[in-house]
């Protein structure tokens, strides 16, 4: 493959990742419009975001293992087709059920492409260029993850919500056509596909039931027998999954990897930080468009401060990581992260928008400076590098799903405390309820941050002990 072609292929696969991660967050800013156009309450509309992430979490590991057997490019190309078809269904949706169907198809396709793009990069790039290629892919993908609300706000300022899905269609078509002619030929790796189907089934049910129980609880109450039963199903499936993985010949996840304390703690801290990052995606559009009565264009511009700050912070943090190691750099940035989170726990009705924008830019700096990938991959032995990469992607996506769940649940609970009743919608006639809910939600975000800081401190302590030994 010619040198200029490998870089074009990198941007083709990375840009698909950008669009798929963008679609995990761009819908957040459209939720106020969707609730009005589709005539659904706020908590039901949140399913439009959640079902996409749940599908990705359920299927990411499956497609990664299948790609090892039948080929990365085949799976990636099929994922591009499904994602594009799902975008078309979403764009043409007249009702919430059809829109949710489109999101399911999108999530199915996105899980295929996300599971294989790193493998394609490893396949086409020589070893001396691979690190640079991974870095470019990571930056482009991360931009998609955090720039959704900002770009969504700008699009909705001029066009209807349908356009946040329409823009995917020509990009998906171009990427597929490019891959059809320019991706290298790939031979089938095995004659017979084998898989840990029991592990996949129990894992998928456990993930799905966990998130379903949370969103059902928001709708009908966490004490409801159906909610409790669904959560118990999830717990039972996790127990069965662990037992199966310990005894099956080719497990879905080699649980031995979790015996490496620093790696496990790095994965959990990454999940916590990604969860915190999603609070802004869920809550800010309602705060700016409904509570502050700003236009969607201005909302988009303000929220673009987060990805712009992230883009600046990430490479600078990477340079410092080479000098001072990932753990120390991550710890410093988590303390930076604390500043805007504490500010948001006390935010008032008429905060200056310039100060507000500077504060949420610090969210981007704290998030971008947190060196989760260098920590995870740095603590993984050579024989676990592939598994660690898949787990990093999985914990990132689970973190997004958990972030949505915690942000919405704590927001509704905080509003309910103020209103002295259950509230699972934006209270137009009582904006003070929303502000109280927002304060409560960000208090829970601060608690998550404290947990992440403690974990990184423990990792740092283990680092020091291992160096002395």
TrEMBL record:
The keyword Transmembrane helix applies. Residues 9-463 form the Major facilitator superfamily (MFS) profile domain. InterPro entries: MFS, MFS_dom, MFS_trans_sf. The chain crosses the membrane at residues 48-67, 79-102, 108-127, 139-159, 165-183, 195-216, 222-242, 263-288, 300-321, 328-347, 353-370, 391-413, 433-459. It is a multi-pass membrane protein. This is MFS transporter. It is found in: Cell membrane. Keywords: Membrane, Transmembrane, Transmembrane helix, Transport. SUPFAM superfamilies: MFS general substrate transporter. It comes from the Bacteria. Signal peptide: none annotated. PANTHER family: MAJOR FACILITATOR SUPERFAMILY MULTIDRUG TRANSPORTER MFSC (PTHR42718:SF9). CDD domains: MFS_MMR_MDR_like. The keyword Transport applies.
């Amino acid at each position: 493959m010619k040198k200029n072609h490998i870089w074009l292929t990198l941007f083709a696969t990375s840009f698909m990742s950008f669009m798929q991660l963008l679609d995990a967050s761009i819908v957040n800013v459209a939720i106020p419009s969707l609730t009005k156009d589709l005539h659904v309450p706020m908590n039901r509309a949140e399913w439009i975001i959640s079902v996409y992430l749940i599908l990705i979490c359920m299927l990411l590991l499956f497609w990664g293992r299948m790609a090892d057997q039948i080929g990365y490019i085949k799976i990636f190309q099929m994922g591009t087709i499904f994602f594009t078809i799902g975008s078309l269904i979403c764009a043409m949706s007249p009702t919430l059920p059809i829109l949710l169907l489109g999101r399911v198809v999108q999530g199915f396709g996105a899980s295929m492409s996300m599971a294989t793009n790193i493998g394609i990069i490893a396949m086409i790039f020589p070893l001396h260029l691979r690190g640079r290629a991974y870095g470019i892919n990571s930056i482009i993908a991360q931009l998609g993850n955090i720039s959704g609300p900002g770009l969504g706000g700008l699009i909705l300022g001029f066009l209807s919500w349908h356009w946040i899905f329409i823009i995917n269609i020509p990009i998906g078509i171009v990427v597929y056509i490019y891959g059809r002619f320019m991706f290298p030929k790939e031979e089938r790796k095995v004659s017979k596909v084998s898989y840990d189907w029991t592990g996949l089934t129990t894992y998928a049910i456990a993930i799905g039931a966990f998130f379903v129980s949370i969103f059902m609880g928001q709708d009908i109450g966490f004490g409801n027998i159906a909610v409790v039963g669904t959560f118990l199903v999830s717990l039972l499936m996790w127990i069965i999954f662990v037992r199966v993985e310990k005894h099956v010949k080719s497990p879905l996840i080699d649980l031995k990897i979790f015996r490496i304390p620093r790696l496990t703690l790095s994965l959990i801290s990454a999940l916590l930080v990604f969860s915190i990052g999603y609070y802004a995606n869920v809550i800010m559009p309602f705060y700016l468009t409904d509570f502050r009565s700003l236009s969607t264009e201005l909302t988009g511009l303000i929220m673009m401060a987060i990805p712009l700050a992230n883009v600046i912070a990430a490479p600078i943090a990477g340079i410092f990581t080479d000098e001072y190691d990932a753990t120390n750099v991550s710890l410093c940035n988590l303390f930076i992260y604390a500043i805007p989170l504490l500010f948001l726990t006390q935010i008032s009705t008429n905060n200056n928008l310039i100060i507000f924008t500077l504060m949420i830019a610090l969210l981007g700096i704290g998030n971008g400076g947190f060196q989760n990938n260098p920590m995870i991959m740095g603590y993984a032995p050579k024989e676990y590098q592939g598994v660690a990469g898949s787990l990093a992607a999985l914990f990132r996506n689970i973190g997004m799903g958990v972030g949505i769940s915690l942000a919405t649940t704590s927001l509704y609970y905080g509003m309910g405390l103020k209103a002295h009743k259950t509230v699972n919608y934006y209270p137009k006639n009582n904006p003070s309820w929303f502000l109280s809910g927002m304060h409560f939600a960000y208090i829970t975000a601060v608690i998550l941050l404290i947990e992440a800081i403690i974990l990184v401190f423990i990792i740092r302590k283990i680092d020091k002990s291992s160096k002395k030994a």
